[in-house]
């Protein structure tokens, strides 16, 4: 091989390396969040000064079925003939973790479930005010709660049918209870999320559900009156594009 040919090859190799470096620099920003999969979010300021970005609505049937169609979620949601979008319901703890894992990977953004404290604080302005207990005996606290809790209308309504908070979060006072990341009796028993048998639900009244329950009307409620429906709402600690 001539000296000129060797110089040509070395030159082309250097150019190829430079091109790869430029490509790496260019591709970096493109690996940010995939906005096609980022749900509608709104910032919520908590009393402790934290800002968390909260999904404006519960995860909908249409959003859930994208996960199912991708093969990442085990169950499919039934589409309504009316064309209206409804909350995705009938979800147990394993179901929602499939969805969270999928949306995090697909959106390239880190979402999670709210804590019970976060859920209660952001819902406080739209939830019914608590009444004084019927019984003052601490041993009858459960009876007071049972007798005073309102009767639940189990009819599932379209997304956006209930109240909206001043921060722009809707349906927190609806009849879909939402999973939180707080383990029921976890602190007392020293359990973490991986070993927890039941989790607190965010909803109109206090409830905790077994991780296996999809239909609370058939049992599985660890505490409180069984909720009407079980769904989920995502939050994130990281800023969301466009919000």
Automatic annotation (TrEMBL):
SUPFAM superfamilies: C-type lectin-like
Transmembrane regions listed in the UniProt entry: none
One term of GO molecular function: formylglycine-generating oxidase activity
Pfam families associated with the record: FGE-sulfatase
Superkingdom of this protein's organism: Bacteria
Domain Sulfatase-modifying factor enzyme-like positions: 51-235
Protein name: Formylglycine-generating enzyme family protein
Annotated source species: Halocynthiibacter halioticoli
């Amino acid at each position: 091989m001539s000296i000129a040919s060797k110089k040509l090859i070395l030159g082309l190799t250097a150019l190829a390396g430079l091109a790869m470096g430029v490509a790496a620099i260019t591709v970096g920003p493109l690996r940010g969040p995939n906005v096609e999969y980022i749900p509608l979010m709104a910032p919520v300021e908590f009393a402790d000064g934290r800002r968390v970005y909260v999904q404006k609505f519960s995860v909908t049937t249409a959003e859930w079925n994208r996960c199912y169609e991708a093969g990442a979620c085990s169950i499919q949601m039934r589409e309504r003939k009316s064309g209206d979008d409804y909350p995705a319901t009938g979800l147990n703890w394993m179901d929602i973790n499939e969805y969270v894992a999928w949306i995090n990977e697909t959106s390239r953004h880190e979402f999670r479930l709210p804590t019970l404290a976060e859920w209660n604080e952001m819902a406080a302005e739209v939830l019914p005010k608590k009444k004084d207990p019927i019984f003052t005996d601490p041993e009858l606290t459960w009876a007071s709660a049972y007798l005073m809790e309102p009767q639940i209308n189990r009819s599932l309504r379209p997304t956006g049918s209930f109240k909206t908070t001043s921060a722009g979060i809707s349906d927190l006072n609806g009849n879909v209870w939402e999973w939180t990341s707080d383990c029921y009796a976890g602190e007392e028993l020293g359990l973490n999320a991986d070993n927890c048998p039941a989790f607190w639900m965010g909803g109109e009244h206090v409830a905790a559900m077994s991780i296996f329950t999809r239909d609370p009307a058939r049992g599985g409620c660890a505490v409180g009156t069984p909720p009407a429906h079980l769904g989920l709402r995502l939050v994130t600690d990281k800023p969301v594009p466009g919000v």
